[in-house]
Design a protein that fits this description.
Blueprint (H helix, E strand, L loop, with lengths): L3 H15 L4 E6 L12 H8 L3 E8 L2 E7 L8 E6 L4 E7 L8 E7 L3 E7 L5 E10 L2 E4 L16 H8 L6 H5 L10 H10 L13 H20 L41 E5 L2 E5 L15
Antiparallel strand pairs: 1-6, 2-3, 3-4, 4-8, 5-7, 6-7, 8-9, 10-11
Length: 295
């Protein structure tokens, strides 16, 4: 699943191309693309047609569009977009060849189309009511998602206090979107490497300065990735113009097993973690020592 930098790249593209545009028609060609919308495809088509895109918004790894009615009044519902593993939001000329896996097509009033392309069909769209959470209007489906490190209202000290209560691995907590959002496997490994911290260390056992440094490095690495257009390992992640990001070239440890650490030259190791892989430098990021049992 794309992480914060990749989703933010898409959000910015949608904001540039869609805001102020009116939906003329919607075509759904694959039922899985709207399976989360319980009322069905026809309901979504009817409710979106005629609305004007107001904003493209994001929290963490989650993206949504808000709308205005023809009279200018804000719509009560937002369109939540689940990109899944391969979802793409493309803005194309209406006469451009239709992508093989384009499952939703929205015709706009400027003769362009917003296309949801999803090869693996893990993603999809759903309309969800907006609710107020901590001063922000969020789709109710995302009310439990915490602020991310790039959010202007992100409270690092509050997050540090929460981390100090977690008696589990720090990487596991970094991936918990109810504690801190936006971080997935790639940027967790990169932030931990930058902070010289092993992901298996217990969060509650880390000092406040160490945790502050880790959160700072998480924000820094995601800002660096954002400047590079995100991380693309294949053609499935692209921006709204179909272009890939190139932060993969700057990754220090993720996906670099058996290659030298850019900092010390020690070979990066790959370990199993939560049905996925973790990458770290055994010298820069030593694992916690196990206590000897007392007989």
């Amino acid at each position: 699943m794309p992480e914060l930098p990749e989703v933010e790249v898409v959000r910015r593209g949608l904001a540039e191309h869609l805001c102020g545009r009116t939906v003329r028609s919607v075509t759904v060609t694959h039922p899985r693309a709207v399976r989360r919308h319980i009322a069905g495809a026809a309901d979504m088509v009817g409710r979106l047609t005629g609305l004007t895109v107001a904003e493209a918004r994001r929290r963490g790894k989650y993206l949504w569009l808000t709308f205005d009615h023809p009279g200018g009044d804000p719509a009560d519902d937002a369109l939540v977009v689940h990109l899944g593993m391969s979802g793409q939001m493309l803005v194309q000329p209406a006469d451009a060849p239709v992508e093989k896996h384009a499952h939703i097509r929205v015709t706009l009033d400027d003769h362009r189309e917003l296309r949801f392309v999803d090869q693996r069909t893990f993603g999809g769209w759903v309309l969800a009511p907006l609710v107020e959470v901590d001063g922000d209007a969020l789709p109710d489906l995302l009310a439990h998602i915490a602020r991310d490190p790039l959010d202007p209202r992100f409270d690092a000290e509050r997050v540090v206090a929460v981390l100090r209560t977690k008696r589990t691995e720090i990487k596991r907590v970094l991936l918990d979107q109810t504690v801190i959002s936006g971080i997935g496997n790639i940027y967790a490994d990169e932030a931990l490497w930058r902070a010289q911290l092993h992901g298996g260390r217990i969060a509650a056992g880390l000092s406040r300065p160490v945790l502050r440094r880790l959160l700072g490095e998480a924000a820094a690495v995601m800002n660096d990735a954002l400047a590079a257009g995100g991380t693309s390992f294949d053609a499935l992640y692209v921006n709204v113009n179909g272009e890939s990001g190139y932060f993969e070239r700057a990754l220090a440890v993720y996906g670099r097993g058996d290659r030298p650490c850019p900092r010390c030259g020690t070979m990066i190791v790959r370990e199993k973690f939560m049905n996925r892989s973790s990458f770290s430098c055994p010298r820069c990021q030593p694992a916690a020592r196990r206590r000897k049992s007392v007989s």
